[in-house]
Amino acid sequence: MEATVQATRRPASVAFRIHPLYRIFFLVLEPISALVGAFYTHFRQETYLSLLNAASAPTQAPKATSVAMSQLSNMYMFFALNEALVLRSTPDLRVWKTVLLVLLIADGVEC
């Protein structure tokens, strides 16, 4: 009986507190900016393209560009939800580090 009880227990995690500035940035500002990006890449595509490069922005986005931008919008939405919900759901530092590392890698690949 004791072996099954110990097998189902979760390992103890060390308590820590994330600095309030990091919490505000990663739980509020970053998700909001990603949601704004999702909105513009899906609903305001011509505006988004003109903000990127006004000289080469089309007046009407071609169908292939529109589809690609809608997919980009989905990725922005995924990042916003991932950051806002996953990081809010746990105080586990390993989870925070992992999620933020993935976002850092995604930002690096984007450049």
From TrEMBL:
Transmembrane portions of the chain: 21-43
Domain DUF7704: 18-107
InterPro entries, sorted: DUF7704
Pfam family, any one: DUF7704
Keyword Protease applies: no
Keywords: Membrane, Transmembrane, Transmembrane helix
Protein name (database record): DUF7704 domain-containing protein
